[in-house]
Give the backbone structure.
Amino acid sequence: MTNSCRPFVKRVAAASLLLCFATVSNAQQVELDIDNVRTLGDCEDCVITDQDFAGDMLMGINFTDAELSDIAFDGASMGIAVFDGAVLTGVSFEGAGLRGASFVGTRLTGVSFAGADLRGAVFEGAILDDTDLQAGDLCSTQLPEDVMDNSDCD
């Protein structure tokens, strides 16, 4: 590994370690202090509250069965992210890139997708409460009713 890569690897390792602590929090709120995170990797079953990941590069992140509330992912790059079985409350994906993201069986309450790229995203079995998928760009997007939406395909 080159010396120029080491600072980046250390930042990613530190961010992953902080998320591990969040994962093992038994019903406790854990404050995460993550600056300039480029990738988080696996955050399965984690609980995250009141964080700002706007503009971050979070491609392929795994939020399976996570509990996320009051999170800003505005403008973040989150293609092929996995939110299966997660509970999202007050989360904003405004302008986020969510191509191919999976929200299978996810409960979304008060979630904003305004201007988000939802092409190829899957919402099979998702429960939408005060959440409008039509605010995003839909093309080959599988809706909760097992209907394919191609309304924004060119």
User: Anything to note?
Assistant: The first strand starts at residue 47 and ends at 52. DSSP finds one helix and seven strands in the chain. Confidence is low (pLDDT under 50) at residues 1-39.
